[in-house]
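Recall the central idea of this unit: under ordinary conditions, the amino acid sequence of a chain determines the structure it adopts. In this exercise we apply that idea directly, starting from the sequence alone.
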Amino acid sequence: MTVALEISHRPWGHYEVLLDDPELKVKRIVVKPGQRLSLQRHQQRREHWFVAAGTARVTLDEQELDVAAGGSLDIPLGSWHRVANLGPTDLVLVEAQTGSYFGEDDIERREDDYGRLEG
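Accordingly, the structure predicted from this sequence is:
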């Protein structure tokens, strides 16, 4: 059993920080059925997503991709991206972040279903 360093609840589900080192941050992300994260990008980190359960509908810049359990995807630095859960059960992702900074304030949102757009 993995012990989370931090658990953060969001309107779409929650994430758990599993590892937080200067060169790598790893999260377990759970997206509830019918929910999606904001369309966002980062200037200081890139991400690698591994789908552990469910099927992820991923928007990556102008593409939409479905990634089933066992599949993975790289999110390049500065790319607009979001993940949605169109299925009937929880979507579980493992996200590995690499780059120079991993803070939540490195999120620039373009669209958000929950009113979290910055000024």
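The chain has a mean pLDDT of 93.
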